Amino acid sequence: MSEHIQRTLILFKPDAVQRGVVGEILTRFERVGLKIIGTKMIAPDKDHYYKHYEEIGQVITRRGETTFNNVLDMMNQGPVIAMVLEGVEAVELVRKLVGSTEPKSSAPGTIRGDFSHMSYGYGDEKGVGIPNLIHASGDLADAKKEIPHWFSDDELYDYSVVNEKFTR
């Protein structure tokens, strides 16, 4: 496999699942040529989220325990759909499609820019996590830690899709 072919983790957060926009968002990833190689619906416990958001993502370290607790409360509002996507420089491509972590700052045309709008200031004022629809690995190093945290090797599939002729 080429060094440019990457895998990245995305999580459709409870707000995306409950709003019924998962299919519409997923279509954007498929249209650019990314391939789904793993998917499942899951309702993780606090320990699973702690490892994801602090041991890997360092939310407490960077933003404080209050922010972490707000994120945890939001993530526990329902199940998430975890997915691994594969494609040419997939990590950067997915980040570009998703938009800024703060929905208010996300450009129109991005997933967050088109489907969400809340600001950090409003979330902080209300003491809530930001409903920003989706988690996407921040960089390749994070993706390499996050994917095995959410998926075992036997849950990831290697197969060909027709569009690889045009997207790889």
Give the overall form.
globular
The CATH topology comes to Alpha-Beta Plaits
Radius of gyration: 16 Å
Provide the low-confidence segments as ranges.
none
Q: What's the helix count?
A: 10
Q: Estimate percent helicity.
A: 40-55%
How many domains make up the coordinates?
1
CATH top-level class: Alpha Beta
Full CATH superfamily name: Nucleoside diphosphate kinase-like domain
Structural class determined from secondary elements: alpha+beta
Describe the structure in your own words.
This protein is α+β, with helices and mostly antiparallel strands. The protein has one domain: Nucleoside diphosphate kinase-like domain (Alpha-Beta Plaits). 47% of the residues lie in helices and 17% in strands. The chain is built from ten helices and four strands. It has helices at 14-19, 22-31, 46-56, 59-63, 65-75, 90-98, 111-115, 120-126, 140-150, 164-167; strands spanning 5-12, 35-42, 80-88, 134-136. The chain has a four-stranded antiparallel beta sheet, with helices on both faces. Helix 3 (46-56) packs antiparallel against helix 9. The longest helix has 11 residues, at 46-56. The protein is globular. The relative contact order is 0.24.
